[in-house]
Each structure stands twice: as structure tokens, then as C-alpha cells.
Amino acid sequence: MLKITKNIFFGRNNPFGIIHEPQASNILKYISGNQDAINISPNILLPGFVGITVEILDHTSALKFGLPMVFDVSDGHAKDISASRKLGQLLLNEAEVTLSNESETFNSCGQMLRNVSYDSSEKARRDSQETHFKSDMTHGSTVQYATYNSAWWNDPAHLRGNNCYAYACNVRTDGNTQSSWPHPGFCQKSKIPGSNEELLEGVRNDRIIRLKEGMSPVNGSNENPAWIVGLAAGFPNDAEAWDYHWYRKVWHGNNSDSYYWGHKPGASLVANTNDAEKDAKKRGYDSWLGYFAIQNVKICASL
Fold first, then answer.
1. Domain regions of the chain by residue span
2. Which of 73, 75, 145, 301 might form a disulfide with 182, Cβ 3.0–4.6 angstroms?
3. What is the separation, in whole angstroms, between the first and last Cα of the chain?
């Protein structure tokens, strides 16, 4: 069997479908003879492309056809881009990819998933193991900036299992597929938000604090950091479905005074930008929902 995932979202779980036998083997046979149409190395997102992830759900088939267990097509990084686009459309047609607000119930091995929680105070899950962070004042609150460390997130064992919310909370989950993506409010409802209203309700339930004038100050420290993050929502990649996206302000490092906004677009590589609001709008997230502080929060996902 093949699992086909259309990578249109940065926050919500992406739509996916399954291709069963014997069609799965027929497709793998075709791909094995046309490997210029696939990309086996995760890469940055390219404008105008919507990547499709292919997961071969049994090792025997992967070995038989000489293919990796996971690869991408139609993402702009294959040697033959035209063939890659055509292959992507074929896969989407065969898999009947669908979208759901519910989390996945079973993993690729057919095992039932369970909900797990992670705490932002867990130092071992952070992308920066510093004992002293850069601090700043905003809205009467003290917030911290960790050193930008994309390699921590882009490690192949964790790349596909963490989304923008995991990055914003600076909590790397244990999973390696989108079923392990955390979502605002998932601890309370085990449901993926599907609108601005549900998203902001989940943000409140996760005890994430909106930064605004007259607020009770947040007192972040080296021992108990408060990360400053930004949140946007909209309809990315000209999709008809809604999504959300988070950014976290990070320090350049090397004793500099440079800062930027790091973010993780879904299963893709971590990137950075100087202007989070402008970057979000460019990607279709044209509803800016504000800036927040993340300190001592618990987030949940499936595993």
C-alpha cells in the first residue's frame, strides 16, 4: 500500500489517501523506472509548487522496487520537474486524497495512536540548550529569544513529525509523521482547529498569552523562558481549505544584535524571515491574529 499526502498546510494535518494493491505495485514499478520524477531529499518550499509525499507502507515493496520508504514528488526539486508534476497528479487521482479535522487514528503500521502531551519547560526538547537567552521587553513583559538552530528541526528523524506549532512552542515531538503534529487545544478536545474561532479558543485553552497593552506582565527568565510568537491564518497555496501558521522570534547568535522570525512550514525545513506578517501574507495566511507569549504550556499530539 501507498499513503499519499498533499502538503498544502503548515499547521493542520494535510489531506491524504491510500492506494491499495494491485495498483500500488503498478505505480511503484512505474516510479522505479522513472526516478528522475521523485525527490528523496527534503528541501525548502518553492513558490508555485505543492509537494506530495509518498510513503511505502511495507519494506518488502520498497526493496523490491529499489525505492526509499518515503519520498516527494511535484515539489520542484526532482530532476525532471514536468514528469514529477504529472506523477503527482496521477497519485492524487488514484489515492482520492481527503481532508479531515479529526486526527489520524492509526499509524502506517496499523497500530492505534494514543494522545501524548509535551511541556514547553522540557529543556531537552528545545532547539537551544543555552543557560542564558537573549531577553527583551515588550508590552511590559520580559520575553526571551533562543538562538536560531534549524538543524535541530531539520534532522531527518524528526523533520516530518513537527509542524509550525511545535516550532513556536520550541518543543520537538517524538513522532516522524504528521499524526504527531501538536495543535492548539488538542489536549482538551483531541480535535484539529478548523477556523479562526476554534484556533483562538485552542490558544486560550493551551494558556498562551496574547501580548497587548494593559495586560498583566509575563516575566520570562533564563530558568523559565517566555518565547514571543506570532500567529496567522488563511487559505494557503490557493487552497479552498483554511489553515494556521506560527512564527517564533529568534536570535541570530554569534554575539550579534540581529533577530528574525523562525518558522516551520508543516513537514518542510525550518526557515527564517525578517518580517513575519509580510511572509505570512505572501503565503496566503492573510489574517494576522496577533503576537503571543509562550511560557509553561502543555501541548498535545498523537503518537
1. 2-95, 115-302
2. 301
3. 21
Calpha distance 300→166 (Å, rounded): 10
Cell of 62: 520498497
Cα(67)–Cα(37) distance, integer angstroms: 12
Nearest to 56 by CA among 46, 48, 64: 64
Residues 74 and 84 sit within 8 Å (Cβ to Cβ): yes
Instruction: Name, in order, each residue with C-beta under 8 angstroms of 229's C-beta and a sequence gap of 6 or more.
Output: 168, 208, 246, 247, 248, 249, 291, 292, 293, 294
pLDDT of residue 136: 93
- Tell me which residue has cell 526539486: 77
Q: What is the DSSP letter of 37?
A: G
3-state secondary structure of 48: coil
Q: Return the residue matching grid coordinates 499524526.
A: 179
Checking if the pLDDT of 106 tops 90, the result is no
Select the more confidently predicted residue: 189 or 202. 202
